[in-house]
């Protein structure tokens, strides 16, 4: 096995746009990671899922091709 081929593993601070921060380990040299979504604000983890505007797309499809049911 070759030595010294893996990057250094350093303590890293992850900061979300919602303001939540947490510590982890990573190979990012700066030690800082900025993310847009984390476990504290992602709808799947918070249980506050919102249904996207798929109703408009379905209605447009049915209008265009006609509902055959």
CATH fold node name = Rhinovirus 14, subunit 4
Q: Which oligomeric state applies?
A: single chain
Major sheet: order of its strands? 2-1-3
Task: Name the average pLDDT.
Answer: 83
Largest sheet: 3 strands, mixed
* Proportion of residues in helical segments: 10-25%
Percent strand equals 15-25%
- Give me the count of strands: 3
* Structural class estimated from helices and strands: alpha+beta
Shape: elongated
In the CATH hierarchy, what is the class? Answer: Few Secondary Structures
Q: What count of structural domains?
A: 1
Contiguous helical run count: 2
Low-confidence stretches: none
How far from one another are the termini? Answer: 64 Å
CATH 2nd-level architecture:
Irregular
Radius of gyration: 22 Å
H/E element string? EEEHH
């Amino acid at each position: 096995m070759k030595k010294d081929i893996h990057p250094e593993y350093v303590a890293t601070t992850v900061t979300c746009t919602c303001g939540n921060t947490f510590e982890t380990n990573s190979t990012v040299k700066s030690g800082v990671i900025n993310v847009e979504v984390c476990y504290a604000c992602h709808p799947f983890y918070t249980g506050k899922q919102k249904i996207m505007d798929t109703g408009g797309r379905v209605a447009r499809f049915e209008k265009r091709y006609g509902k055959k049911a």
